């Protein structure tokens, strides 16, 4: 089982395997400090207008399909997109 540092994960581009679209880079990780595991990754979303507040995209860790050398592949479906 390969090990990854948080810094190396944050340098990986996140890509949705369903659409092939680039979602961006990891902004933050949500961690369960009781069970010592990652719950989800947080990716910043673009602002829709100058005055609007940007919302972050939270992707559950179980939606990650593969961690490669420089990309992180996720399986997103519309029902899974939890906006924060």
UniProtKB/TrEMBL annotation:
Coiled coil: none annotated. Residues 3-76 form the PRC-barrel domain. It comes from the Bacteria. Transmembrane segments: none annotated. Pfam families: PRC. This is PRC-barrel domain protein. It comes from Clostridium colicanis DSM 13634. The lineage of its organism: Bacteria, Bacillati, Bacillota, Clostridia, Eubacteriales.
């Amino acid at each position: 089982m390969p090990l990854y540092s948080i810094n190396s994960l944050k340098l990986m581009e996140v890509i949705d395997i369903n659409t092939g679209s680039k979602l961006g880079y990891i902004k933050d990780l949500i961690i369960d400090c009781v069970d010592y595991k990652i719950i989800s990754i947080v990716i910043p979303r673009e602002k829709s207008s100058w005055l609007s507040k940007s919302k972050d995209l939270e992707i559950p860790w179980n939606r990650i399909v593969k961690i490669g050398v420089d990309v992180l592949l996720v399986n997103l479906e519309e029902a899974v997109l939890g906006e924060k």
